Each structure stands twice: as C-alpha cells, then as structure tokens.
C-alpha cells in the first residue's frame, strides 16, 4: 500500500543526461527525415538547426528554474510559483495530455516499424493496428509500467542500457549513407524550393520540434537528482547540443543518399516513397543489413522514449496535485520505493486510452508538438516574473543576457505553435480557453489560501490573451488560415504579439509579498528552504 513517502535522490549526471537524450531520441528521427524533405527540400537542414536553437534557448531558461527549484513535476509547479494556481492548472492539463499521449505515440511508432518484419501488426493499406498490433502496444505499455513501478534506479538502469543501443544505429546510419552521398541532390529544384515558409513549417509539421522535445523529463525528476544545481543545467545543455549535431548529420546523409532519379519530380513525393525513411533508403541502396538494424532500433528507440515518459508523467501528475488544482490522492508517494504510484497508475491508464483512437504517428505529431511547446513556452515568462517578484531566490544557475534571451525564446515558442497550422491551433488553444472557463465556474473548489480568484485571473490573463491572439492570427494567416495575412507578415504579426504578451506576463505575476514556494518535504535529503514568502530578505 502506498504511504506518504519521499522521493529518493538516486539520479546522477549520467542518468539525467541519458534521460534527456533518451527522451529526445524516440520516434522523431525515424520518421521526420522524409517529411522534412517533402516540406522544405534540402533547406530542411536549416529547419533542424532552427529547431535545435529554439529548444536550446528554452533549455537554458529551464536551467535557471531547475537549479533554483528542483521540484518533482516542475514544469507544472513553476507557473504556480510565479503566477498562481490558475496558471498551474492550465499547464497541468495540457502537459498531462501531451506527456501521456506521447507514451502512446512511441508504442504506435514501434509497432509501425515492427510491421516491416511482421505485416500482421498493421492493417493492409493503412497505418492502423490490427488486434495483434494493438496487443503488442499494450504489452509494451505494461513493460514500461513495471520498469517504473519499483524504483527510479531500476528505471534509470534500464534506460541507460537502452540508450547505448539507440545511439549506435543513428551513428551507423550516418557513416554508411555518407558513402553514397551525391552533392547534386542538394540543388534539385534549388536548395530551398518551397522558400522560407517551407523551412518554418517543417519545424512543426515535419516532426522536428517533436523530435527535440525531451527536456521536460529532466525537470520532472528534479527531486530525485543528486546535486541538482550542477547536474540539471549540464544535462539539459548536453542533451540539446548532442542531439542537434546528430539530427543535422542524419538529415544531410538522407538528402545526399537518395538516388537522384527518384527526385525527377522534385521533393514532394519523398515522404510517400520513403515513408520509413532510413529503412527504405537502405533497401533502395541494397544495404539489407542496415535496414535490419534500423528496424531493430526503430522498435527499441521509441520504446525507450516511451519508458522515459512513463516515468516523467507521474511526476507531472504529482506536481499538478501539489498545486491544489488536481486530486489530492496523486500527492501520495510510496514510502519504500519513492515512486508516486497513484500518478503512475493514471499515466498507464491514459497511455492505454490514447492508443485506442490514434491511427498513426503522422496523424498525432502536429498536435503533440504544439502541446509540448505550449508547456515549454511558459518558462521564459515564469523566470521573468520570479526575477521581478522574488529577487532574493537563490539561483545557482543564473541565465546571462536574459533581457534579450527571455523574450526571444518566448517569441520562438509562439511561432512554433503558430506554424502548427490552424487545424491544430484552433482546437488546442480553444480547449485551453474552455478549461479556463471551467476553472472559474468551479471556483469554490480551487485553492485561494493566499491568492484570491481575482488575483489569480489578473496574473493569468496574459496567457488567455496569448491563446486568443494566436487563434485570431492563425485564422487570418497563411498556415491553414484564410490567408488575409500573407507570409511573412503573419509571422511578423505573431512575433510582435508574442513580444507584447511576454512583457504583460512578466509584469503581472504574483505580487512579491504573496509569492510562496512550497517546502521540500517531498525529498529524502535536506535542501535550502524556500518555503517562506519571497519578498523578504534571505536569512544569513
């Protein structure tokens, strides 16, 4: 039976870096190359660099939060510290959807690639699973659940082992494909046949931003990290830099190794001709053993990523429950293992549910990418508000040049969400606005111990303004909208709107005398106490 235990500080720098890299290297690299080529042509190389730059900026911002406030489920709890429970509630909802569905996406990806060996796993003529295919997905989810049930160290050891294999195959693919490299491929129809808009769209719709988003699992397990003030920043930055290097090399190798005659009609059909890009290109080039290795890695790599999110999501659930805007039962931690088992059970149930209606990896990627970026986008505003209203908070890692980096990182995050297109933006952000209304209608159930509902609304109005502005601009813009705002004027309008909203959010955080950070009773080792109101000087 679960008791009110404490998290165990068992994760090292190696463990945390492998969690970051393992979360980043899931199904993204296995599917994205051909989609990026179709959307942007050879200029998709810049899409990978842009995506890596965006996530690096957000990762650096998270370094300040993660080092100063190493809390389980920090991605949900940081907004509470800066702007109150209402913002934490909105972030908790969208992050739980994104994380739990991501577990499902990875087992779907593993099943799709495994169907190259076992066609009975996938329905003929579609990407939907057969009954046998769905049972395979369910079996993988059960395995992830068991690996995470007993201790965080059991999970970490399994993840480290899986991660080593996961990186051997991409490096092997790079080395082999470069031996077939044809420079002339990069100039078919010109280097950027679809212009700047193609480069931008590939970041979201091509699966690039999805492929990069593995930083929040690092933050989610912060309470279980040894020496978090040093370990978290190093692990975050290392994860992004290494993954960017590998992703760019993979894309270049793929572009250059395609037989030139396949490009007679340009890049638009590559995603269909090479739907499983690295397996298909290996078979096209007659490298059967490499295709075999890719399929083996394609089952293991997404599985490892799904395992990581099975670990991270219960911490998000725990963090959401700690804010007081989710069921209290999810604050329970097993006394012996230090695992938030109620949250783990919920994660398992949701991940099984998400496998039911989802048809394929391609159908899910845009929505989950936008949802994950939304959870990342709050970080710059949170840092800015805490710097303004909690200047005495101990910050072992303080981001330099934040006056520029903060607004720039928020603008880039806003653009990535916008580039997801009207079909994604309209319902995803509209759902968030609906959840805001639900919160107000149920105000008698929400915490108001130190912040009134009126104050919570004042401190969170900027986010609703951001959602509304993005929906309007998306409807008028050129990414699935009416086209009233043509490119690049629509992108400039989104950037200008995001800049105004960033400063609005930074200046409307919780007033200094009301800022509170919950205590550290959740961890098994003592840390500096930040549980006092933060408008006061720190004790000597």
From TrEMBL:
It comes from the Bacteria. It is a multi-pass membrane protein. Pfam families: AA_permease_2. Its main location: membrane. It is found in: Membrane. One of its GO terms (molecular function) is transmembrane transporter activity. Keywords: Membrane, Transmembrane, Transmembrane helix. Residues 521-540 are annotated as: Disordered. InterPro entries: AA/rel_permease1, AA_Transporter_AGT. GO terms for cellular component: membrane. The chain crosses the membrane at residues 12-33, 45-65, 86-111, 131-149, 161-181, 201-222, 234-258, 281-300, 342-361, 367-387, 399-419, 425-442, 462-482, 488-506. PANTHER family: ASPARTATE-PROTON SYMPORTER, PTHR47547. This is APC family permease.
